[in-house]
Design a protein that fits this description.
4 strands, globular, about 130 residues
Length: about 130
């Protein structure tokens, strides 16, 4: 079973809102939500700094791969039983928009959410009634 750590700002209203929408979809309890404002959690996030964590949501997969922003959301979707089929679709769109190879994105996780990616993710979330 694949597990994922999701690092967010526990004081952020949007972060809490998104978690509240994703939690019911995580029927197998594969997502561990972590608040990087907690010093112990931030220590687990090393070598990332609090400032880096505050820029975008970060995830770490069971095999130690880090992702942030749009790539992090794809990793979250990948562990949701009824949603995992969507991850390859969103990944293909991501690589077409950024011009980067899938290998680069998986190992570095240095992308950010572009306007077309944001629009696509918004359409998907609206259709799912999240």
């Amino acid at each position: 079973m694949h597990k994922i750590e999701v690092y967010t700002d526990g004081q952020c209203s949007l972060c809490r809102w998104m978690r509240a929408r994703v939690d019911p979809l995580d029927r197998n309890h594969r997502i561990e939500w972590l608040d990087y404002n907690d010093p112990e959690i931030l220590q687990r996030a090393a070598p990332h700094t609090r400032e880096e964590m505050a820029e975008e949501m970060h995830t770490r997969t069971a095999d130690g791969r880090w992702a942030k922003g749009y790539s992090a959301w794809i990793e979250v979707i990948r562990v949701l039983p009824r949603w995992k089929w969507l991850a390859p679709v969103l990944s293909r769109h991501q690589h077409r928009e950024t011009g980067t190879s899938p290998h680069y994105m998986k190992t570095r996780g240095t992308d950010s959410l572009s306007a077309p990616q944001s629009a696509l993710l918004s359409r998907v979330l609206k259709r799912s009634r999240l």
